[in-house]
Amino acid sequence: MQKPAFAFQWHITDECDQRCKHCYIFANGACAGFKRMPWEQMVEVVDQAQALCERIGRQPYFYVTGGDPILHPDFWRLAELLYKRGFMWCVMGNPFHLTDEVCARMKELGCRKYQLSLDGLEATHDYFRKPGSFAETLRAIGCLKRAGIWVAVMNTVSSMNAAELPQLIDLVASLEVDVFAFGRYCPTSGQKRDEFHLEPLEYRDVLLAAQERMEFHQAAGCKTFFQLKDHLWTLLLWEQGKFTIPENAKPGMIYDGCHCGTGHMTVLPTGDVYACRRMESKVGNVAENSLEELFFSPQMEAKRDFKKFKKCSKCELFGWCRGCPAVTYGYTGDMYDADPQCWKEIEE
């Protein structure tokens, strides 16, 4: 029986061809200089990840990213190492350096999936990223499909692009991408929070509009898997009677929801380790403590103190939802506060 996966979101470099308006790495002038992880430390991270997974009975799944990981001079060396070790790995990157030859080589070295972003239709996407990015992304999807690599398309939804989400779903379905998902924007400043904000019932309407298009394409035999990434989907499906709480569920137990501090770790080019990259959640550095030590550290334990959820701990969906702590942190500075887009009213 195959062991369940443990995800390592591994930013091997900050180098990037884009400066996306909603990027948490380059937010508000941060990351003034590019950093890349040296090869020796990259090997150490692989060794540490393997040791941690052996202890907890999981198998490592490396989400190699950046910046754009292909820009790291040792990207191919790392790909060969992961392939020789027999580890699962994929890439979250940009489209600009993908060719048929590059994609074929990644496939040969075991790359299972490549995640690209589409943040709306052409004008909107290029506004968020840079002119020509939309066309390059569509071109890259073709390269990946010809190589036999799963194509995942991710969208960051906000008030700036929510209206285009149904049309975007139609587009990815027509392209027959393998996976499509969207997550909410995590504010990086008060100004951006106000600029990109969606009210709770507005966001519920966004989910309903997306659901209508997803179900339409599923009924038509669409090959795209629509991943319900945002945990507030659980709330919507529960309201619709499409999700029910199991009769044998134990109160206070965690069954699903955010994997922060439980089934996921992030490693940055500096060696810093975060419980979640989308919020300030540093727990240490691989040069000072191993990933195994950090996973069981008090710093990580503080990121999985479920009883601290102020609203969610009082909700019957607590074990399956809890919204998005990273989005909540971006609004309030406290990951355990009430999710700003959750529309469910809780009786005290």
TrEMBL record:
One of its GO terms (molecular function) is metal ion binding. Keywords: 4Fe-4S, Iron, Iron-sulfur, Metal-binding, S-adenosyl-L-methionine. Its cofactor is [4Fe-4S] cluster. Gene3D superfamilies: Aldolase class I. CDD domains: Radical_SAM. Residues 2-223 form the Radical SAM core domain. PROSITE patterns: RADICAL_SAM (PS51918). PANTHER family: PQQA PEPTIDE CYCLASE, RADICAL SAM DOMAIN PROTEIN. This is Radical SAM/SPASM domain protein, ACGX system. It comes from Collinsella aerofaciens.
